[in-house]
Design a protein that fits this description.
The chain has 427 residues and is mostly helical. It is built from 25 helices and no strands. The termini are far apart.
Length: 427
Amino acid sequence: MTTDKTKVQLLSVLLHLFRVAFFSLFFLWQGLSTAAPQSVEENACVTCHSDIWEREVQGSVHARANILCQDCHGGDPTQLDIEAAKAPATGFVGVPDKKKIAETCGSCHANVEVMNFYGIRTDQLARYKTSGHGKKLFEEGKDQVAVCSDCHGHHHILPISDPNSSVYPTNIPKTCNQCHGNEALMAGFGLPADIFSKYQRSVHGKAVLEKKDVSAANCTSCHGSHGAIPPGVRDIGAACGKCHVNEKKYFLESVHAPVAEGGNFSECIACHGNHEVHPASKLLYRTACIQCHAAGSPAAEVGENLFRVLAQSESELKAAEALVKGASIEGIFVEEEMGALEDAKTNVISMAPVQHSLSADRISGLYEKFSEVAREIKTRVHQKREFLKWRKIALIPIWIFVLLMASALWYKYKQLQSRRKGNPSSE
């Protein structure tokens, strides 16, 4: 009885194992028969479109991650027959419209599980839909706006860290200008088409385009990238303040801050402009202030006073630098004065952000500190020059004495030579 029961149990276990093995092999076979090929060589899309693959796709960031044609265009990459490869059941898209492009890119880039491995943010599609571009596309159906492929490219997509990428910091202005420099396109949206030419002339543009400074402001630094939208009047200070932290800090202490908070004053661009920002100059006090304040008014006079203090400090700093340099050329040891000059420069440099507070007292305080050091440098150099002059004067009698002694020795030498010639027997 026990033996029969054991046999039954053994047969039951073997039958169960057989069922598991059978269904495992069945589903594995099914998966292998319908799965996309794992290698590029087996991909029918690549086989037919080898020119596009080699010229555009092969070196892209997607190809390196084994993201191939069917992942964006659909279709069956196992079929060499065109009709079978592009059959309706395969989900073949071909050339997607712009809304489809955004959604297709988002199917991966908004997927936390997919992007988590690469450390890439997954809110970009959601941010895009809040942007000026996204709203025009998804809410108004205008497909003339930029979508993912317009900025990143279609097939030859490179990492943003690659200097050859269209979205590398130094390339972004030219990428944006592909649309924003198109007069016909911009006219349809009531936007100017000369932004890039203005940016080229700006302090930011020269830093990015000429000096290749990736830390300087480009289009996305102020407008954002996927959530791109022009900053409003109250947002401009926040955008500029991301880089110009100290200027922002002191501006918040100025009389302009409440006016800007109320939306009646464009914080930074009111004085500096937006796309064509030139290097900051004290001359702005004579040009920018009178745009809002009448010439000769108390507010304009504050600007004029600040201009005079800044001009005076710059003039005195140049004079102090020339004085120390000249003394060094003369052979005077000016190590202490050079150290003091650096302290003086610090006060002048500090005036740049502090002036945004529009506080004459603060600027005057920094000027007094600078001026005190500058006067001390001037006094020290003058004293050292006087000391050097008296040292040179003190050398005169010494040189006279040396010359007299040399003359006396020469005279004595001649006398001895003369005696030897007159009395040869003395030798």
